[in-house]
Amino acid sequence: RRQYGCDFIAAMPTNLYGPNDNFDLQTAHVLAALIRRFHEAREQGTPPTLWGSGTPRREFLHVDDCAEACLFLMERYSDAMIMNVGVGQDITIAELASLVAEVVGYRGAIQWDRTKPDGMARKLMDSSRIAALGWTSKIPLRQGLRDAYRWYQGHVGELMLCD
Q1: Sequential pLDDT tens for the chain (163 residues)
Q2: Do residues 37 and 48 make contact, with C-beta atoms less than 8 angstroms apart?
Q3: Which residues pair with residue 101 across a beta bridge?
Q4: CA–CA separation, 26 vs 63, rounded Å?
Q5: Spatial distance between the Cα atoms of 22 and 18, rounded to a whole number of angstroms
Q6: Whole-angstrom Cα distance, residue 8 to residue 79?
Q7: Looking at CB atoms within 10 Å, which of 57, 66, 101, 137 has the fewest?
Q8: What are the residue ranges spanned by the domains of the chain?
């Protein structure tokens, strides 16, 4: 800001998901990986194996909400302090897995490999500053998951060619 004389702002989003995500199982983040694992489990009739215990908690923000938050901040915020952008709610990985299974239409068992690490127990941003300015996310997780899964279904053939 001082060096270049521009009104730069920094938005720090929580875990993002949505259409055009990275669904490669080697490099995908948790939500996209779960969508793919449950889709493949449904197609192959085999239960997915997920890492850890399922107890860690994570927060997820749809990419369209993130875009809205960035536009909101460009119009209403001017400060050097980083602005956290999140939904203010978290969910356990086990709850998320059940929700993804439901959206994908997988009705089988879920296997948990407790020999694999859980990672941090909880990742929830303090988004109270952006909320105080009047911004809140609009896309509920279930709706966003449906949106992301529809996109995945429409592109799964292309994605398999990239693996």
Answers
A1: 788 889 999 999 999 999 999 999 999 999 999 999 999 999 999 999 999 999 999 999 999 999 999 999 999 999 999 999 999 999 999 999 999 999 999 999 999 999 999 999 999 999 999 999 999 999 999 999 999 999 999 998 887 656 5
A2: yes
A3: none
A4: 21
A5: 9
A6: 8
A7: 57
A8: 11-16+25-155
